Amino acid sequence: MSGSLAASDLSVRYETPHGSVHALRHVDIEAHPGEVIGIVGESGCGKSTLVTALANLLPANARVDGSIRYNGIDLAKLDARRQRLLRGDEIALVSQDPMTAFNPVLTIGDQLVDFQHHRKDLGRAQKRARIAAMLGRVGIADAELRMDCYPHELSGGMRQRVAIAAALLTDPGLLIADEPTTALDVTMEAQIIHLLRALRSEYNGIIIVVSHNLGVIAELCDRVYVMYAGEVVEGGEVDAIFHDARHPYTQALLACDPARFHERLDRLPTIPGSLPNLTQPPSGCVYAPRCACAFAPCGSVAPPLVKLSASHRARCHAVTP
Amino acid sequence: MSPLLTIDDLSVTFARAGLLSRLVNPFPLPSFNVIDGVTLSLMPGETLGLVGESGSGKTTLARTILGLVRAAAGRIVFEGRDVRTPADFRAMRRRSAMMFQDPVASLSPRLRIGTLLTEPQIIQGLPMPDRRAVAKALLALVGLPASFVDRFPHELSGGQARRVGVARALAMKPHLLLADEPTAGLDVSVQGDVLNLIGDLKRELGFAAMIVTHNLAMIRHVSDRLAIMYLGRLVEAGPTQDVFCAPMHPYTATLIQSEPIPDPRRRSQNPAVTGEIPSVFRRPSGCEFHTRCPIARDRCKTEAPTYRPMGTDRMVRCHFPLQTGGQEREAFSRASANQKGKLT
């Protein structure tokens, strides 16, 4: 089963002893089956809060406003039991370091059997056969042997492959990969990117890839949302984001990536300034204090979401369609 | 001009067994080389990038140069003098500095920034009439406000902690700076800041730098020369631009090809290399890269290539180096385009 995902006007704030932290403000995203959605931004931009909200795993001090509709159901309004069922069945998460996602004292095979707990129709032997097939699918040689390994016996790249296999075993309609290659070396990273790309051709759910690495996003995604300080500042087709970025933050972020320049630069480009304090988010544009083209209304009036094309949107005063 | 630092045939050996099993077991297990026969030199004022995947021994090499890990064989010559005894290393460390990989963890959590910044002078026994003034001057050098002297490390952001790391490394006005992954964990907009700062201070103070990293996109812009490590051995070295434009070792070529390009119109077709870095416990026979090399031949499996000069300023460890217009380069691009069936 797979359906569309749409978060509309989603805001998350964390209640802390120092006041509320407005970690996510008025986020609108949508994703359709078969799409790979990229969420890109720097640390502190709210990418992790967004995906944890989508997976319904926010901590107890988080307050959620707005709606997350998956397949027509509003996830935020489900009771705890239904949420839990949905997580095992429909929504799967691949985390940055799968070492921490696996239990160190159980073998890979045992844990992957447990991942399929909702498949009441399968026996243990059938589950193990599915695991072996899936491990082979994600490029692990000697799957039968590897099932008897403990997580620490596998290398980082292997663990990430096992984590992807674990996520796919549940036949999720929504697969969230949170920084799937950040902990890996570049040669392993390339292999995982190719694995994800090969998998998407036969998987027809939604894949959401969260990364701060623009290269990974460009290699993998169909559509991209760029986040800054808890807001989605720009969203659109991957080609539009990388070749026709309209929001000043997106442009600055792209300009900072040294991988885009082949000639040696004497000075690497940077974005001066720092993130705003999210306990009191600015009333105007969040990026205005660091923006090179800020003008009169930017400091006081929140910018509208400007529709630039069928799927390309930017939240900026200076942008016109 | 004579080199600032010369490393000649340096090897580092780790005993495989732990201390306890060595005491219990009268027949010790064989030790293995984490660094094997590394030869390198660094000119004054030069920036050398030391690149490799995790486990290739690049951090161990940097630590060995400063005497934090003991070398099993080989020579280190710093400013024309052999560095052998602990006293030699102490003298060398007075004129060289290391920026450790984790900036927050390398700052003692219970000391204030001011104390941390002036610790090197205290340890080296230098006279310092006004500690606070020295600390403030160092903070100003790296562009942090003077009020930071009273802060604790946990109050800093990642980029600020990195700046404090730079300030502390430069406190002794070193001739050599060893920076271990100076940008790991930093956002792209901040990573440029730290590297520009190191570059500016390098021009101002004239020290040489060795940057240990796996970030190829970054090192391309900040280094003069590159050395590529694989399983504790150098496989290629040369001027940065030359290495990037025409890599000679297939490993270097695969590293450069593996780097994701931030452009959806130029998506890479196939992974340049499959498989994983082998373990130093079980080094492959012959050329160590032959297990992953797209153009390996029979000779590579049995005979280990030597590290030999190519042209005037390049070094490579390969039987069949890729040369512009040569058949190996063609074979490499064909082979890396043909690997599609192999992966899955």
Description of the molecule:
The complex is a heterodimer of chains A (321) and B (344). Chain A is an alpha/beta fold. Chain A has a single domain, classed as P-loop containing nucleotide triphosphate hydrolases (Rossmann fold). Chain A is built from 11 helices and 12 strands. In chain A, a hairpin with a 5-residue loop joins strand 11 and strand 12. In chain A, helix 5 packs across helix 7. The longest helix of chain A is centred in the middle third of the chain and has 15 residues. The two termini of chain A are 37 Å apart. Chain B is α/β, with parallel strands linked by helices. Chain B has a domain of 232 residues: 3-Layer(aba) Sandwich (Rossmann fold). An 8-stranded mixed β-sheet of chain B has the order 6-7-8-3-9-10-12-11, with helices on both faces. In chain B, helix 4 packs across helix 5 and helix 6 packs parallel to helix 7. The C terminus of chain B is likely disordered. Chains A and B meet through helix 7, helix 8, helix 9, helix 10 and helix 11 of A and helix 7, helix 8, helix 9 and helix 10 of B.
